[in-house]
């Protein structure tokens, strides 16, 4: 079978590889790591590139793949992760990864948290700050009122509502710093901002393989500094400019049962397909707080999927093969 691979690189958008603003891209090493695994699973790989290059193939009638493995993220739009699935659906092309609706809903962090709460899943409290609705004085009043109403105390975590890869994520200690980072995110990403309760503890990643009733959790992964110390808040700086190490982690049965149960509820309720990842904070007292859902997580070398696979005796290639096979009967390929 010929599988096309979509991906973004910073140079596709005129962005420097060391940008501290936009970073949700793939490196050549990451692209080839996944492509080589697909080949080892017995398939031919076509490196397509980003959404514009995919669109050109359709327009020039040069698209000839049986299936597309979607890994691109897009840029500068709350719809950015929806565009390639929508384009593939419009052209009747089967693909690996979650559909347009799951991608769009999960891109909105507040809406994702509201769904999680509906499912009985605990999340940090937050203030939702609308974009471009207030003058400076009104913004101050709005946020001060929100802090009182939600009984939030510093430190807090500030993040843009519809971005990924920890872009614009900051831990703030004072009201002045909070206002500065809210303004930075609005000016930089042109969208609403979340000011969340800070949860001390370990930040974990929980990868899932499969669709619907057949979906299962691979394990629980934690990212640490190279020296083995914990990362308090995962920021873009950690992901792009510091060496980090992934490790499989185990908690007590009750905590693990909660993590697995919540993760599968989210995966199934959002209609995630083939693979996804949920992120949480686990406190010293083993309280679990859901942070975000990623229906299109990176399948990076030694990342959460490969690390958790190894912890249960599977290889990276085996997991990639499972993800591909999930899509084949669904798509009738």
Task: Give a description of the structure.
By secondary structure, this protein is α+β, with helices and mostly antiparallel strands. Helices cover 38% and strands 21% of the residues. It is built from eleven helices and 14 strands. The strands form three sheets. Strands 9, 10, 11, 12, 13 and 14 form a six-stranded antiparallel sheet that branches. Strands 2-1-3-4 form a four-stranded parallel sheet, with helices on both faces. Helix 1 packs across helix 11. The longest helix is centred in the C-terminal third of the chain and has 17 residues, at 253-269. The relative contact order is 0.14. The model has no long low-confidence stretch (mean pLDDT 93).
Q: Could you tell me how far the N terminus lies from the C terminus, measured between alpha carbons in angstroms?
A: 9 Å
Measured on Cα atoms, how large is the radius of gyration? 20 Å
Overall pLDDT level: 93
How much of the sequence is in beta strands? 15-25%
Number of domains: 3
The number of E-state strands comes to 14
CATH classification class of the largest domain: Alpha Beta
Our count of helices gives 11
Secondary-structure map with pairings?
Blueprint lengths: L1 E5 L21 H13 L3 E6 L1 H9 L7 E4 L12 H8 L4 E2 L3 H8 L1 H10 L7 E4 L6 H15 L5 E5 L9 E3 L2 H15 L3 E5 L4 E8 L6 E2 L3 E5 L10 H6 L2 E5 L4 H17 L5 E8 L5 E7 L9 H8 L4 H16 L2
């Amino acid at each position: 079978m010929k599988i096309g691979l979509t991906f973004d690189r910073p140079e596709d958008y005129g962005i420097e590889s060391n940008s501290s603003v936009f970073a949700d891209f793939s490196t050549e090493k990451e692209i080839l790591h996944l492509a080589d695994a697909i080949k080892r699973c017995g398939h031919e790989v076509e490196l397509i590139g980003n959404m514009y290059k995919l669109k050109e193939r359709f327009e020039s009638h040069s698209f000839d793949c049986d299936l597309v493995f979607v890994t691109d993220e897009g840029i500068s739009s709350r719809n950015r992760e929806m565009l390639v699935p929508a384009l593939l659906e419009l052209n009747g092309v089967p693909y690996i990864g979650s559909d347009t609706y799951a991608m769009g809903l999960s891109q909105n962090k507040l809406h994702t948290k509201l769904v999680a709460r509906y499912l009985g899943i605990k999340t940090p409290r937050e203030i939702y700050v609308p974009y471009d609705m207030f003058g400076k004085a009104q913004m101050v009043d709005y946020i001060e009122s929100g802090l009182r109403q939600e009984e939030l105390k510093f430190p807090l975590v500030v993040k843009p509502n519809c971005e990924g890869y920890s872009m614009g994520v900051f831990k703030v200690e004072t009201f002045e710093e909070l206002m500065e980072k809210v303004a930075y995110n609005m000016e930089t990403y042109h969208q609403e901002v979340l000011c969340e309760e800070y949860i001390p503890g370990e930040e974990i990643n929980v990868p899932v393989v499969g669709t619907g009733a057949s979906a299962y959790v691979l394990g629980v992964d934690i990212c640490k500094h190279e020296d083995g110390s914990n990362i308090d808040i995962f920021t873009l700086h950690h992901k792009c400019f510091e060496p980090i190490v992934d490790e499989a982690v185990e908690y007590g049965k009750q905590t693990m049962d909660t993590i697995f149960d919540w993760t599968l509820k989210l995966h199934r309720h959002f209609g995630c397909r083939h693979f996804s990842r949920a992120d949480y904070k686990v406190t010293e007292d083993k309280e679990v707080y859901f942070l975000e859902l990623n229906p299109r997580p990176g399948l990076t070398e030694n990342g959460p999927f490969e690390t958790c696979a190894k912890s249960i005796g599977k290889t990276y290639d085996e997991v990639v093969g499972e993800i591909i096979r999930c899509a084949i009967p669904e798509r009738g390929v």
